Amino acid sequence: MKYSITVLIIFFTLNPTFCIGQTKFIQQKAGHIFYIDVPDYMNRTIGLNNDAAIQYKNSVKDVCTIVIEDSKEDLAIVDLHYSSINEFHEEFIKDFLKDEEKRNISKPTSQSKNNINFIEFDASYYDKEAKIGIYYLVGIVESKSHFYKVLSWTNLENKDKFKADFQNTLYSLKD
């Protein structure tokens, strides 16, 4: 009898699932990988935008690029459902630079490439503190699982110099 009790105590001590119960675990994926080509003159940085997944800049050339990603699954959790890239773009553009002086937003253009949808538009405004015009190339990107905002900017005088690089960066995005 003593032997049986000792065996039971050892068994339940070494096998905690009998004492605690059976909890089912589901493996979860954390993080999302996407790819984007950035000009070699830009370096990875931080501090440009707290929501950005990646941030690049070149202080000498006065250029910056950030990418903000929004998982469709995460958006749905907070009850934000976008039926299309156009709807996502319209929601974004409402508040983008809305309080800035001399805000100018171009008409958007759209295209698809390798099952990824893109909307591109130019934006500019006058920065009172810096006393210069700022130019943005803004891209909205829709993949199967994510929306992305790709924002590249420089001073307005350098628009023509860097716009092609900004576009190449935008259209290179894939996940």
Describe this protein's structure.
This protein is of the alpha+beta class. The protein has one domain (28-172): Mog1/PsbP, alpha/beta/alpha sandwich (Protein Transport Mog1p, Chain A, 3-Layer(aba) Sandwich). It is built from 5 helices and 8 strands. Strands 1, 2, 3, 4, 5, 6, 7 and 8 form an 8-stranded antiparallel β-sheet that branches. A hairpin with a 2-residue loop joins strand 5 (109-113) and strand 6 (116-127). The longest helix has 14 residues, at 159-172. The protein is globular, with a radius of gyration of 25 Å. It starts with a helix and ends with a helix. This is PsbP C-terminal domain-containing protein.
SSE inventory with pairings:
Blueprint: H1 2-14, H2 16-20, E1 43-44, E2 54-58, E3 63-71, H3 72-77, H4 85-95, E4 101-105, E5 109-113, E6 116-127, E7 132-142, E8 146-155, H5 159-172
Antiparallel strand pairs: 1-2, 2-3, 3-8, 4-6, 5-6, 6-7, 7-8
- Specify the CATH class: Alpha Beta
State the low-pLDDT regions, or none.
Answer: none
Using only CA atoms, what is the Rg? 25 Å
Number of strands: 8
Q: Which CATH architecture is right?
A: 3-Layer(aba) Sandwich
Number of domains: 1
Q: What share of residues are in beta strands?
A: 25-35%
Distance between the termini: 64 Å
Helix-strand makeup class: alpha+beta
Mean pLDDT: 89
Organism: Flavobacterium sufflavum
Protein name: PsbP C-terminal domain-containing protein
Short description:
The mean pLDDT is 89. 28% of the residues lie in helices and 34% in strands.
